[in-house]
C-alpha cells in the first residue's frame, strides 16, 4: 500500500464506493419491496385512516379509469402537475387496496379508442387555451355488477378535497344504493297552498334537487319513531314537536343516525293560516330543538336574531330606493369554512333573520363552525323584528358586538339521552305509528349514544327557500332554476356529506401539493423592507433639501432672481451625491437578495443530490444488518 500512488488509491476508493452503492440498491430492492416512505411535511402521500378502512372493505374488484389528455395539455404545466398529483394518489390507493382497486391510465387522444371509451362512460372533453383543444381530465369507475361512477373533471382549485372526492367515488361503487332521507318540515316545502301568494305553490327547488339524488320520504310531525332504513333525518323548521317526536329524534341520533336540522327563531315564510279564526295572533313563526340540545350544552336562542352590517344585502326600500337590510345577510367566502367539505367551494350563502348557535364550555359536543357572521354583527330580539322588519328601524339601535356569530355548524360527540326514564307517554294517550293506524313497536331504549352523534345544525330555515338563492322560470311547462347564491349547493352538500360512510365523514381538507418557497419569500420580504426603508430615507432627504432650498431662497436679498445662489447650488450638489449613494445601497440590497436566494438553492441542491441518497443508503445498510442479526439469532 505504501508504494501505491494517490491516483491509484483514489481510483480504488471510487470502485469500492460504486460496489457499495450497487450492493445497497440490490439489497434495498429485496428488503424494501412494496415499502413506501412519505417524507413530505404535510404527508401528501399518506392516506387517511378513513380511506384505508374504506379500501379494506372492497371484497370484489373495482376498476378505475383515469383519463388525461397528455398532448393537449403540453402548454399547461400547472394542469400537468396536478394530473401527476391525482395519478400518484390513485396509485397509492390502488396499492393500499391490495390489488382490489385496479387502475388504468388512458390518454384519450382525438379519434382514439381511449377517447371512445371516455365518451362511453359519459366523460366529455373541456375546451381550454386559445386554440380550444378538447382536454379530458376525469375518472370513471365500475364495479363487478356493472355500476358506474364518474368525476367529470378534476378542478385544481379543489385539491384540498381530492382524497375525499376519490374516496366518495369508491364508496359509491361499494354501496350503490341511494341514501334514504326522511324530511320533516313545518313549511309547505313540497308544494301546497302558499299563504303569501294565495295560490298553490310548487315544491322548493332544493327539495326537488334532493329528490333526484336521494330517496326522499316525507315524515309526519306527529311521528313517534323513525324507520330503521332512514339514513338521514332532515328537519326543516320543525315547529311544535311533541315529546314523542323529540324522543324519536333523540333515539335516532343515539343509534347513529345523521341529522340535518334547520331551526329558526323567525321564519319569514311561516305565515299564519288565513283560515285561522283568531287571525293568527297566537302564531309564532319559530322552531327549536333546544329541548334536546340544551341538555348537551348547545342551543339556538329562540328569541334572538342576527344583524350584520358587513354582509347586509341590498333590497328595495321605500319608493323603490335601494337600502341595505341588516337582517338579510349574504355570507361570502370570508365567513365560510374553507376546510369543510360542505362549504369549501361555495361563493355566498344568503340568510334571512337567522339565529345563532351557542355552545357552552362544558358541552360534550365538539363544534365545527361552517358559516359565521362578520365581526360587525349583533343579536337583537326576534320579537322586535317580527313586529317591524323594516330595514331602517333595524338600524336605529344597532350596535356591533365585535365578534363572529355562528350561523351553521357541525356537532359531534358522545352524549346521553334526554329521556333517561324511557319513552314519554303519547300526546293523545295511545301509541300509534306514523299513519295512525296501529300501535308502533317499541325499540330498545338507549341511554347513551353508540359512538359519536352527527348533527349538522343551521340556525335559519329561510336559507332553504327559493327566494333566498334561486329564480325559477317556466319554459313550455318546464321549471328552469337559475341560482344567484350557493344555498342549494350548501344543503345538498350537507345531505351528501351526512350520507357518506363513517370513514368518509372523517376525511378533511388536506394541504395543497404545490407549496410556496417560504424561505425565499422571507428573503424577498426582508429585502423589500430594506428597499422601502432606503427609499423612505431618500424621500425624507429630498424633502429636507427642498425645504433648505426654499429657506435659502427666502433669505436672499434678490428673492426675485431665478438664478441659483452658490449656497443653493452646493445644497443641490450634496443631495445629488447622496442620491447616488442611496441608489448604490438599493442595488446592493437587490444583489444581496439574489445572492442569498442563489446560496439557498445551492444548499438545497447539495442536500437533495448528495446528503439524501447517502442517508437512504445508510438506512438500507442498517436495515440489512438488523435483519441478518435477527436471522442469526433465530
- According to DSSP, the number of beta strands is 24
Strand order of the largest sheet: 10-7-11-12-22-21-19
CATH class of the domain at 180-425 and 445-500: Alpha Beta
Mean pLDDT: 80
Q: What is the alpha-carbon Rg in Å? A: 34 Å
Measured by DSSP, the beta-strand proportion falls in: 15-25%
Major sheet attributes: 7 strands, mixed
Bin the helical content.
Answer: 25-40%
Identify the CATH architecture of the domain at 180-425 and 445-500.
Answer: 3-Layer(aba) Sandwich
The rough form would be described as globular
Q: Output the CATH topology of the domain at 180-425 and 445-500.
A: Rossmann fold
How many distinct helices?
Answer: 14
Please describe what this structure looks like.
By secondary structure, the chain is of the alpha+beta class. Among the domains are: 126 residues, Glutaredoxin; 302 residues, Rossmann fold, CATH 3.40.50. The chain contains 14 helices and 24 strands. The strands form eight sheets. It has a seven-stranded mixed beta sheet, with helices on both faces. A hairpin with a 5-residue loop joins strand 5 and strand 6. The relative contact order is 0.10. About 3% of the residues have low confidence.
Amino acid at each position: 500500500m505504501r508504494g501505491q500512488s494517490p491516483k491509484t488509491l483514489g481510483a480504488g476508493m471510487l470502485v469500492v464506493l460504486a460496489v457499495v452503492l450497487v450492493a445497497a440498491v440490490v439489497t434495498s430492492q429485496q428488503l424494501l419491496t412494496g415499502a413506501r416512505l412519505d417524507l413530505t411535511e404535510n404527508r401528501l402521500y399518506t392516506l387517511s385512516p378513513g380511506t384505508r378502512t374504506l379500501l379494506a372493505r372492497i371484497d370484489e374488484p373495482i376498476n378505475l379509469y383515469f383519463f388525461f389528455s397528455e398532448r393537449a395539455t403540453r402548454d399547461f404545466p400547472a394542469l400537468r402537475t396536478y394530473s401527476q398529483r391525482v395519478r400518484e394518489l390513485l396509485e397509492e390507493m390502488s396499492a393500499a387496496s391490495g390489488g382490489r382497486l385496479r387502475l388504468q391510465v388512458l390518454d384519450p387522444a382525438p379519434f382514439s379508442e381511449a377517447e371512445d371509451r371516455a365518451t362511453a362512460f359519459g366523460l366529455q372533453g373541456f375546451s381550454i387555451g386559445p386554440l380550444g383543444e378538447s382536454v379530458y381530465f376525469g375518472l370513471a369507475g365500475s364495479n363487478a355488477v356493472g355500476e358506474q361512477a364518474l368525476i367529470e373533471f378534476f378542478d385544481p382549485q379543489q385539491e384540498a378535497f381530492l382524497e375525499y372526492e376519490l374516496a366518495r367515488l369508491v364508496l359509491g361503487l361499494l354501496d350503490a344504493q341511494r341514501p334514504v332521507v326522511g324530511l320533516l318540515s313545518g313549511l309547505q316545502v313540497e308544494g301546497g297552498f302558499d299563504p303569501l301568494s294565495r295560490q298553490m305553490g310548487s315544491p322548493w327547488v332544493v327539495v326537488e334537487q334532493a329528490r333526484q339524488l336521494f330517496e326522499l320520504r316525507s315524515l309526519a310531525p306527529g311521528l313517534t319513531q323513525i324507520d330503521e332504513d332512514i339514513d338521514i333525518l332532515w328537519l326543516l323548521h320543525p315547529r311544535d314537536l311533541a315529546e314523542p317526536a323529540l324522543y324519536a329524534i333523540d333515539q335516532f341520533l343515539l343509534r347513529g343516525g345523521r341529522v340535518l336540522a334547520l331551526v329558526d327563531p323567525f321564519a319569514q315564510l311561516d305565515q299564519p293560516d288565513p283560515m285561522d279564526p283568531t287571525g293568527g295572533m297566537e302564531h309564532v313563526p319559530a322552531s327549536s330543538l333546544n329541548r334536546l340540545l340544551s341538555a348537551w350544552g348547545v342551543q339556538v336562542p329562540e328569541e334572538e336574531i342576527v344583524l350584520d352590517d358587513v354582509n347586509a344585502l341590498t333590497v328595495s326600500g321605500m319608493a323603490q330606493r335601494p337600502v341595505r337590510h341588516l337582517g338579510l345577510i349574504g355570507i361570502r367566502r370570508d365567513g365560510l369554512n374553507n376546510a369543510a367539505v360542505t362549504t369549501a367551494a361555495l361563493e355566498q350563502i344568503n340568510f334571512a333573520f337567522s339565529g345563532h348557535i351557542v355552545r357552552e364550555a362544558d358541552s360534550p359536543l365538539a363544534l365545527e363552525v361552517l358559516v359565521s357572521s362578520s365581526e360587525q354583527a349583533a343579536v337583537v330580539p326576534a320579537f322586535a323584528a317580527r313586529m317591524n322588519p323594516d330595514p331602517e328601524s333595524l338600524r336605529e339601535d344597532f350596535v356591533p358586538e365585535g365578534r363572529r356569530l355562528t350561523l351553521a355548524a357541525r356537532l359531534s360527540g358522545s352524549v346521553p339521552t334526554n329521556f333517561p326514564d324511557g319513552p314519554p307517554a303519547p300526546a293523545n294517550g295511545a301509541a300509534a305509528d306514523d299513519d295512525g293506524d296501529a300501535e308502533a313497536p317499541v325499540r330498545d331504549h338507549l341511554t347513551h349514544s353508540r359512538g359519536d352523534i352527527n348533527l349538522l345544525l343551521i340556525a335559519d330555515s329561510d336559507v332553504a327557500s327559493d327566494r333566498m338563492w334561486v329564480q325559477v322560470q317556466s319554459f313550455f311547462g318546464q321549471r328552469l332554476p337559475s341560482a344567484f347564491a350557493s344555498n342549494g349547493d350548501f344543503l345538498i352538500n350537507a345531505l351528501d356529506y351526512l350520507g357518506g360512510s363513517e370513514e368518509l365523514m372523517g376525511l378533511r381538507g388536506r394541504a395543497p401539493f404545490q407549496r410556496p418557497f417560504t424561505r425565499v419569500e422571507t428573503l424577498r420580504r426582508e429585502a423589500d423592507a430594506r428597499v422601502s426603508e432606503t427609499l423612505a430615507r431618500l424621500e425624507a432627504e429630498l424633502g429636507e433639501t427642498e425645504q433648505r432650498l426654499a429657506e435659502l431662497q427666502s433669505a436672499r436679498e434678490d428673492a426675485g432672481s431665478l438664478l441659483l445662489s452658490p449656497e443653493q447650488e452646493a445644497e443641490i450638489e450634496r443631495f445629488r451625491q447622496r442620491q447616488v449613494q442611496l441608489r448604490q445601497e438599493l442595488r446592493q440590497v437587490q444583489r444581496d437578495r439574489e445572492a442569498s436566494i442563489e446560496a439557498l438553492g445551492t444548499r438545497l441542491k447539495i442536500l437533495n443530490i448528495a446528503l439524501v441518497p447517502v442517508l437512504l443508503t445508510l438506512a438500507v445498510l442498517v436495515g440489512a444488518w438488523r435483519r441478518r442479526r435477527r436471522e442469526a439469532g433465530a
